[in-house]
Amino acid sequence: MARPSVAVSLPAEESVPVAAELREAGFTVVTVSHPDELEAFLAGNRDVAVAILDGETDFDRSLEFYGLLRDNGRAIPALMVVSPRTLDKLGSGGAGSVEDEYFTRPYSAESLRWRVEAMCIRSQTVDDGSGPVLQSGPLEADGWSHPATVIAVFNPKGGVGKTTVATNLASALQIRKGQNVLLVDADTVTGHVTTSLGMNEVRTVVDSLRDEPDGGAVETLADLAAAHSSGLRVVSLTSSPLNNEILEPSRVTALINAARRGFDYIVIDLHPSYGALNQAIFEVADRILVPVTPDVPAIRAAVQLADLATELGLRERLALVINRANSGVSVADMERTVGMPSLALLRSGGLLFVRAANEGRTVIEMFPREKISEDFDALADRIIGTPVSAPAAKPAFGLFNRQKVAVRA
Ligand SMILES: Nc1ncnc2c1ncn2[C@@H]1O[C@H](COP(=O)(O)OP(=O)(O)OP(=O)(O)O)[C@@H](O)[C@H]1O
Ligand SMILES: [Mg+2]
User: Fold this and answer.
1) Ligand 1: residues within 6 Å at CB?
2) Where are the domains of the chain?
3) pLDDT value at residue 134
4) Can the peptide bond before residue 391 be classed as cis, meaning omega within 30 degrees of 0?
5) What spacing in Å lies between the alpha carbon of 186 and ligand 2's midpoint?
6) Given this structure, which CATH class describes domain 5-135?
7) Could you check whether 5-135 and 143-385 share the same CATH topology?
8) pLDDT per position as a tens digit, 360-372
């Protein structure tokens, strides 16, 4: 199927690399510098997925462009490129429609391309012959309506790579496999997924639940999730280890189940404990990935988990992921000891993880050709290709209700 078109109105030094990147990705791109050019392009093209506009160099001109996206019954989302300062000034007023998004300077053409990909994933171009219409919202009886597979990443031993696996697997599924992924940081004690992805001050589930009794809106995980430059959507349960009583396990699992409708995969990073919240999340997880490093304490913890999982009736959902597989105990010995085969092996990525975290990116985004990214690719393939247990509840919800989110480019 042909890829949709994208209109780009940016200063020349930005529009040239951005147009080249988008064309490389298969999009039809038109660069426009005057509203008349955009008008002409929109009149002749029904499949315009996104218009990338400069949100600050000439704000009045941007507004003219923006108006055209809404003229004649059109509803084409705008991706407004702004400076972080302008974004702050915009405050909660934000863009004109829930479909519009912001992208902050400085940015790379590649990260902007992934943002466009994400916007396309979240919308579906519908050509009903009446003109360019981009429809979003829950769709009936198609690929979007199947419930997500929930993958919990857990080992009761600290530091074995749970967060690394959750974040980079989510990124691999999103970027390399074209899946629509929600990454949930459910480590209520030492969770740092959003900060390591360069997403600061994001609204958490605890923030939302605390606001609810004061008349705050009931928000879904999709509402709360912030978009990362990779296209991943990311939400944290809390930003503080204290006073999280409001996170009742049943409330959290209801939110997870409700989010199944909007995503292909929900990847959940857990704290290393057997607390009530984790046990409830195990219940709703279709798969529990157990990262294990080749050392005795990590293997011992995995053996204990395998035994407990048998007691809890979860054993068939568990799968080992051997992390830093190129050192220490052999893979065959680990599999034998834990009594489970491994789903995938991940080698040591050395400092690549640190370098990626310094940039607020995942290794998959930043070092796509490195062997470690290939390992995650193979893990993503195994996940996609491996059948999972029966899906849980399938509640309806507003699929694409999103709030404005700040995104680091
Ligand atoms: N394959 C790998 N190659 C190189 N470094 C790795 C690898 N896996 C994990 N690390 C590093 O090891 C450290 C611990 O990893 P991570 O935070 O993912 O563990 P965790 O199980 O989530 O820890 P915690 O139990 O504290 O939440 C991090 O600094 C991470 O970058
Ligand atoms: Mg962790």
Assistant:
1) 158-164, 187, 190, 272, 323-324, 346, 348-350, 353
2) 5-135, 143-385
3) 36
4) no
5) 9
6) alpha beta
7) yes
8) 999 999 999 999 9
